[in-house]
Write a structure and sequence with these properties.
With 710 residues, the protein is of the alpha+beta class. Among the domains are: 147 residues; 96 residues, Calcium-transporting ATPase, cytoplasmic transduction domain A; 127 residues, Rossmann fold (3-Layer(aba) Sandwich), CATH 3.40.50; 120 residues, 3-Layer(aba) Sandwich (Calcium-transporting ATPase, cytoplasmic domain N), CATH 3.40.1110. The strands form 5 sheets. The protein has a 7-stranded mixed β-sheet, sandwiched between helices. A 6-stranded antiparallel β-sheet has the order 4-3-5-11-6-9, with no helix packed on it. It is elongated, with a radius of gyration of 33 Å.
């Protein structure tokens, strides 16, 4: 697949889009403005991560906080007993309690600050969640420990009050380590984004007006400059070839494994690898306007967006906060009645410390990060992660015909003059003149046929389009149009219906040449069904999803393609607004996946529960689709559905691991089993929590993308 194929216009015979419309289409690859993005020098060590409700934790700061906190924790462990038990390696000296208190205070206010700041943000929004739970645990442990030091060393109470500095310090370090691991995992899972940036070379060979070549930094490259690309080099930016030919490997960008022949006028994508030829090209996109930058933005936006499951995880954490608060207060009251303050306070503290939902906080983000990376590596760009959660409820898969089920590479099978004053060559010349400024697949077929027959044609002027009906323009003072059969029917123009049905039954898309109310000729163009199209339809049916074809093409052609791939429900002669209405109609009976080429299909892509753009990385599909299939292969739809289901399973499993631990540990820490002599202390809980986190991470990283059987 070459870059021009990736930027195709509407492919159905009744849906054409002129260049003026295309020129006005902007790519919305995210809310942020990247400015001039130098992807080759991105520093991922300074990545920020959303720690809940908009609070950002900086990767570099977190790493530094962990190491500083770890260093401070070592003397605390050496001088502070664990739950009142002095370990063999521990030391004590006059004033050691105060040293521990000072170190513990630094740990709390320095190492614990990310969690406290996150809790503040959550509470301001009146949505306590994971950061609030963590902050509650470390705050209670710190306050109680300061109380213990003052009680023991100032008021000399008896018996001595055990402090929680050992637990506080190790808990902060464990939490910081866990979040550092999480962020490293997310970044490693995001290596597909890094790889996109690394595809670009550091410099480009810019050709000056006098023909001399100068190497410039990629960040200094500008749109409109001419660059030379030598054999074996990476192409520095999106560009259009102006001289030379070569074979270009775009596999790392598009997922297409074979080398693609490129010649004058063809588009090339920055980051793809040039073959044995050399060429010069004019730069069409750099920085945030380049294809790779837009793909990178898509992936990063997908990572940063909050899915419903993540919101659910935060809600679960909120419930746990209230549960822990209630259980801690209740346990305190009960133990005050049953025993005394010296027993009640440690039990309450244990409940609050145990409640820290580290594993729960990692449960969904790690799975989504892994899933996003796997998808990107396989040419599936997930723009909206919420879409993945709809897969288990899909009932219908509505899909466009041309470009989705068929290749969109049309060739002229029949060209006939219907007017005595015009020969077949005259008809072809007029049609080519009208389509000379279009990249529509049907137009490309006509232009290719004219070129092959060496037909001279005059490009039309004052061209305009009537959506779903045809292309019009002036040639030598006469207005002509290349129109669909719908235009003829709408204007009551006479044509041979039997001839039309015969050509359409062969699978052709039919266009007519008209001048005023006179039909001058017709062209019948055939397309080829994609090899994986039938496999896609069969797979959808096996999953209980009903495939439906929606196309602007004629009914006969649509029926032939549908029969070949196994689709029973076919809707033809559709305008863009018709498709959108049908999406809403099917949604009344269940969740809908819509697969289209992303131009005139944009309303339907936006309306569907899952909008999937085939073969588009640079046009309006980016704005309207949830998922983009870079390689234009229908088999990738199957792969996405499998990956989405596996992702949802992993999310559910991890949520059970995270939340299930808390539901069990909180009552144990409160002393439910105290009558039989079992009490769960904070340190044991922290160790178990860290093990739970490791399980969650391993489970997330075990997510795999299943290869499609041929």
């Amino acid at each position: 697949m070459n870059a021009s194929e990736m930027n195709h216009n509407k492919m159905d015979s009744n849906m054409k889009m002129d260049h003026d419309d295309m020129a006005n289409m902007k790519m919305a690859a995210g809310d942020g403005d990247h400015g001039d993005m130098d992807m080759s020098n991105m520093d991922m060590t300074h990545m920020d991560m959303d720690m809940g409700d908009g609070h950002m934790m900086h990767m570099g700061n977190l790493k530094r906080k962990f190491w500083v906190s770890l260093i401070l924790t070592i003397p605390v462990i050496l001088m502070s007993p664990m739950m009142g038990v002095k370990l063999p390696f521990q030391i004590a000296f006059p004033g050691s309690d105060w040293v521990v208190a000072i170190l513990g205070s630094i740990l709390f206010f320095y190492g614990g600050m990310p969690f406290i700041s996150g809790a503040k943000a959550e509470l301001q929004l009146k949505r306590p969640a994971m950061m609030t739970l963590i902050s509650m645990g470390i705050s209670v442990a710190y306050i109680y420990s300061i109380y213990a030091v003052i009680a023991n060393d100032v008021f000399h109470v008896t018996p001595m009050v055990n402090n929680f500095f050992w637990e506080l310090s190790t808990l902060i370090v464990i939490m910081l380590l866990g979040h550092w691991i999480e962020m490293n995992t997310v970044m490693n899972a995001g290596s597909a984004v890094d790889a996109l940036g690394k595809l670009l070379p550091q410099t480009a060979h810019v050709i000056a007006d006098d023909g001399t070549a100068t190497d410039v930094q990629l960040s200094d490259l500008q749109v409109g400059q001419t660059v030379a690309v030598r054999a074996g080099e990476q192409i520095p930016a999106d560009a259009k070839i102006i001289s030379g030919t070569s074979d270009v490997n775009e596999s790392l960008v598009t997922g297409e494994s074979k080398a693609i022949k490129k010649a004058e006028g063809d588009d090339v994508i920055g980051g793809s690898v040039n073959g044995t030829g050399t060429f010069t090209a004019k730069v069409t996109g750099t920085g945030d306007s380049g294809y790779l930058a837009k793909v990178m933005d898509l992936i990063q936006n997908a990572k940063n967006s909050k899915s419903k499951s993540e919101n659910l995880a935060n809600r679960v954490a909120g419930w746990l906060f209230y549960a822990a608060l209630f259980a801690g207060i209740l346990a305190f009251i009960i133990w005050m009645v049953v025993a005394n303050l010296a027993v009640a306070l440690p039990v309450a503290v244990a409940v609050f410390v145990i409640a820290c939902p580290h594993a729960l906080g990692l449960a969904v983000p790690l799975v989504v990060a892994r899933s996003t990376a796997l998808a990107a590596q396989n040419g599936l760009l997930i723009r909206n992660r919420d879409a993945m959660e709809q897969v288990n409820h899909l009932k219908f898969a509505l899909m466009d015909k041309t470009g989705t089920l068929t290749k969109g590479h049309f060739q002229v099978n029949h060209l006939i003059s219907l007017d005595a004053d015009h020969s077949d060559d005259d008809v072809l010349a007029l049609m080519a003149g009208l389509e000379s400024g279009s990249s529509h697949p049907l137009a490309t077929g006509i232009l290719s046929d004219a070129k092959g027959k060496a037909i001279h044609f005059t490009p039309a002027t004052d061209t305009h389009q009537e959506t779903g009906l045809g292309q019009f323009g002036d040639i030598d003072g006469t207005t002509y149009g290349v129109v669909s059969v719908a235009y003829l029917d709408q204007h009551n123009l006479d044509y041979d219906h039997d001839q039309f049905k015969t050509f359409a039954a062969e699978g052709n898309s039919i266009s007519f040449l008209v001048a005023g109310e006179k039909v001058l000729g017709l062209v019948a163009e055939g397309d080829e069904i994609k090899p994986a199209a039938k496999m896609l339809v069969t797979s959808l049916k096996s999953q209980g999803i009903t495939p439906v074809m929606l196309t602007g093409d004629n009914q006969e052609t649509a029926n032939k393609v549908a029969a070949a791939v196994g689709i029973d429900d076919v809707q033809a002669h559709l305008l863009p607004e018709d498709k959108e209405r049908l999406v809403q109609k099917y949604q009344a009976d269940g969740k809908v996946l819509f697969i289209g080429d992303g131009v005139n299909d944009a309303p339907s892509l936006a309306r569907a529960d899952i909008g999937m753009a085939i073969g588009s990385g640079t046009d309006v599909a980016i704005e309207s689709a949830d998922i983009i299939l870079v390689a234009s292969d229908p088999a990738d739809v199957i792969q996405f559905l499998d990956l989405a289901r596996a992702t949802n399973r992993k999310m559910t499993e991890n949520l059970w691991w995270g939340a299930g631990y808390n539901l069990l540990a909180i009552p144990l820490a409160a002393g439910v089993l105290a009558p039989i002599g079992f009490m769960l202390d904070p340190m044991v809980g922290a160790v178990i929590m860290s093990l739970s986190t490791i399980i969650v991470a391993i489970n997330a990283m075990s997510l795999k993308i299943k290869p499609i059987a041929e």
